[in-house]
Specification:
By secondary structure, the chain is of the alpha+beta class. It is built from 21 helices and 23 strands. The strands form 8 sheets. It has a 5-stranded mixed sheet with strand order 12-11-15-16-17, covered by helices on one side. Helix 8 packs antiparallel against helix 9, helix 14 packs across helix 15 and helix 20 packs across helix 21. The chain is flat and about 100 Å long. The N terminus is likely disordered.
C-alpha cells in the first residue's frame, strides 16, 4: 500500500484531466511527459483526479513496460522513465517518474511543450516557442547566447568611444589582463570575442554589442537589454533612471549614483576613524556584475537597482541556472549562463577572476554585523538580491578586524558566517551551524575548531550536545562579561539542583552515568559533581563497585 501525497509542487505531482476509467489518450500522456521533462521533471500519477478521486487504470496502462516503451518511442530524444503500479484503497494507480531533460525534448509528432502553473494554480502543458529554446539551452549550460553573432548587427553599430572607455577600465583595474592593451583595435575585438567573420563580413557578437554598441543600436538590435537605477524615500521618488547604454558606461553611471545615495558612519579603531558605509561598494559592484553577467538576454526585462528605506535590491531577468539555488549559491562551483560575457568581465578587471564575487556580497554585510543578503524572493524567471539596511555592530566589526590584523590575512567566508551565526544565536551546535550556512557537517566542524584554537569561540559540553559560544575574550573586549556568565557559568551553578531533582524522580537513587547524561558532561566530571554533593551531606554512597550508585541523604 502506498499513500499518494495530498499536495506537492507542480512538477512533483501531475494528475490526469481525463478519468482513467475512460482511458487517458496516449497523445495527452506524451504531451504531459514532454512538458514535465522540459521543466523540472517529477512524478506523474495515472488514475488519480484533481479532486483526489481514485479512478484506477485501464488495461493498457497496467502494462508498465508497455507504457515506458510508448513514452520512449514517442519522444525525441527518447525520454527514459520509470513506471510502477501502486495500490491505494484497493485500486491500482500508475506512478511514472519523469527525469529532467538535459536538452530540449519534443514529441515524435513535432510538438515542443513545457509545464507551467495556470492562474488558479493547476498545471498545464503549453508550447515551448522557438525564441524560448535558447533560454532553455542556456539554463542547461548547453548554449552560450552571449557568444552568438547578433543578427542584423554590423561594424557601424560599434562605438569607438566605448573601445577607449574599455581600454581605460583595463588600465586602471587591478587584476585586469594588461596584455590586451598591447593589441590593435581589431585584435582586441577578436581576443575578447567581440566580433566574428561571416561570409567575409564583420559581425558583432552579443557580448561585443553589450560592451561596444551604440545606444541606438542596442535599442534596435537588443530590445531585451535595459537597466534602471531607482532611489525611493518612502513613496517619494528621488531617482528613476533607465538606460540602454553599453555596459562600461552603465557601470560608471550607476557607481556614481550609488556613491551619492550610500551614507556612511564612522568607527573608531585605535587612532583611526574608519568609514562604515550603509552598503559596501564591493557588495554593490559584485551584485550589479552578477546581474548583468548571469541574466537571460533572450527574455524581455531589465537589470534593476533599487535603494529604499528597507535596503538595496538588485534584480535581473532569468532564474538561477541548472544546479544553482538560493541555498547552495555561496558554495556551488562557479559557472554562469553567459561564459563569454563573464570571461570579458574578468579579463577587463570588472569581476572577480575566481568567479567568487558572491563571497564579497555576503562579506560586505557580515563584516559589519548586519543581516545576511537574501535571495529568497528569486523565482524561476528572476534572480533578486536583497541587502537589508541595519545599524552596524561596531564591537563585532572590531573583533573581526583585530583577528584579521593578527593573522595578516582576511578570514574565510565560512569563518565569517559561523561567527555571525554565533553572534546572532548566542549558542549553537555544529548541526545548527551546518543547517544555517548550508555547509556539510565535516567542513563546518573543521572551520569552527580552527576558530576555537584562535580564541574567538569556546566549546561547551561534549559529544553530540557540544555547543559553541563566542569566547570569554570576545565578551570581555566588548564589556559584556555578564552575558558570558549567563551563557556558561550559570549552567554549572545549577548542576547540584538538577542532580538532586533527578534523584528525587528516581526514588532517591542516582548513578554517575545518570549525571553524565543529564548534564551532558564526561563521567569524570559527573563523579566530581557527586563528590561535591557527598561532601555537602546531600548524597551518600548506596552501593560500591561496578554498579555504584548514590542516594539522597535523609
Amino acid at each position: 500500500m502506498r499513500t499518494i501525497p495530498e499536495k506537492e509542487d507542480l512538477f512533483t505531482e501531475f494528475k490526469s484531466d481525463t478519468k482513467e476509467k475512460n482511458g487517458l489518450p496516449d497523445s495527452e500522456l506524451i504531451d504531459a511527459i514532454v512538458g514535465m521533462t522540459n521543466a523540472e521533471g517529477g512524478i506523474l500519477y495515472l488514475g488519480v483526479e484533481d479532486d483526489g478521486e481514485i479512478t484506477g487504470l485501464t488495461k493498457q496502462h497496467k502494462d508498465t513496460i508497455g507504457v515506458m516503451a510508448l513514452i520512449a518511442n514517442s519522444t525525441v530524444p527518447s525520454v527514459s522513465t520509470r513506471a510502477e503500479i501502486i495500490t491505494e484503497n484497493k485500486t491500482d494507480i500508475l506512478r511514472i517518474e519523469v527525469p529532467k531533460a538535459r536538452t530540449v525534448t519534443a514529441t515524435s509528432s513535432g510538438k515542443t511543450l513545457r509545464r507551467r502553473l495556470k492562474f488558479d494554480g493547476s498545471p498545464e502543458a503549453v508550447p515551448l516557442f522557438p525564441y524560448e529554446i535558447p533560454s532553455r539551452l542556456s539554463e542547461l549550460s548547453l548554449l552560450d547566447f552571449s557568444a552568438q553573432p547578433l543578427e542584423g548587427a554590423t561594424e557601424e553599430d560599434i562605438d569607438v568611444l566605448e573601445f577607449e572607455r574599455l581600454r581605460s577600465i583595463i588600465k586602471n583595474s587591478i587584476g585586469s589582463d594588461k596584455s590586451l592593451l598591447e593589441l590593435n583595435q581589431e585584435d582586441f575585438y577578436k581576443a575578447l570575442h567581440f566580433i566574428v567573420e561571416e561570409n567575409g563580413k564583420i559581425v558583432p557578437t552579443v557580448t561585443g554589442l553589450l560592451f561596444l554598441g551604440k545606444t541606438e543600436s542596442l535599442k534596435r538590435l537588443m530590445p531585451t537589454y535595459r537597466a534602471s537605477f531607482q532611489v525611493l524615500s518612502g513613496t517619494s521618488v528621488k531617482i528613476n533612471e533607465t538606460s540602454n547604454e553599453p555596459l562600461g558606461k552603465i557601470f560608471e553611471k550607476f557607481s556614481t549614483y550609488f556613491k551619492a545615495w550610500n551614507p556612511e558612519k564612522e568607527m573608531e579603531y585605535g587612532l583611526f576613524r574608519i568609514p562604515v558605509p550603509e552598503f559596501t561598494h564591493a557588495a554593490f559592484r559584485e551584485g550589479l556584475l552578477n546581474a548583468f553577467g548571469h541574466r537571460d538576454y533572450t527574455q524581455l526585462g531589465q537589470v534593476r537597482v533599487l535603494i529604499d528605506d528597507e535596503g538595496m535590491t538588485i534584480s535581473s531577468q532569468g532564474g538561477f541556472i541548472e544546479g544553482v539555488n538560493s541555498e547552495n549559491l555561496i558554495f556551488v562551483e562557479p559557472h554562469g549562463r553567459n561564459p563569454c560575457l563573464s570571461d570579458v568581465l574578468k579579463r577587463v578587471g570588472l569581476a572577480e577572476k575566481t568567479g567568487r564575487g558572491i563571497d564579497r556580497i555576503y562579506e560586505g554585510s557580515i563584516l559589519y554585523g548586519r543581516p545576511w543578503p537574501d535571495y529568497s524572493e528569486s523565482t524561476s524567471s528572476i534572480v533578486k538580491l536583497f541587502v537589508p539596511r541595519a545599524n552596524p555592530d561596531m564591537q563585532f566589526t572590531k573583533m573581526i578586524a583585530d583577528e584579521q590584523n593578527r593573522r595578516n590575512q582576511p578570514l574565510s567566508i565560512n569563518a565569517l558566517m559561523i561567527l555571525s551565526t554565533i553572534r546572532n544565536e548566542r549558542r549553537v551546535t555544529v548541526e545548527r551551524l551546518s543547517e544555517v550556512i548550508h555547509l556539510n557537517k565535516s567542513r563546518t566542524s573543521s572551520t569552527i575548531e580552527n576558530l576555537v584554537e584562535a580564541g574567538l569561540v569556546e566549546a561547551i559540553g561534549n559529544g553530540a550536545n557540544r555547543s559553541y559560544i563566542l569566547s570569554a575574550k570576545v565578551y570581555k573586549q566588548n564589556n559584556e562579561s555578564a552575558k558570558y556568565v549567563r551563557q556558561t557559568d550559570i549552567d554549572a551553578v545549577r548542576y547540584p539542583e538538577l542532580i538532586i531533582k533527578l534523584a528525587k524522580q528516581q526514588d532517591g537513587i542516582i548513578t554517575k552515568e545518570d549525571v553524565a547524561d543529564l548534564l551532558k558532561i564526561t563521567d569524570v566530571q559527573a563523579y566530581l559533581q557527586i563528590k561535591k554533593l557527598m561532601a555537602e551531606g546531600k548524597l551518600v554512597q548506596n552501593q560500591k563497585g561496578k554498579y555504584a550508585n548514590y542516594k539522597l541523604k535523609d
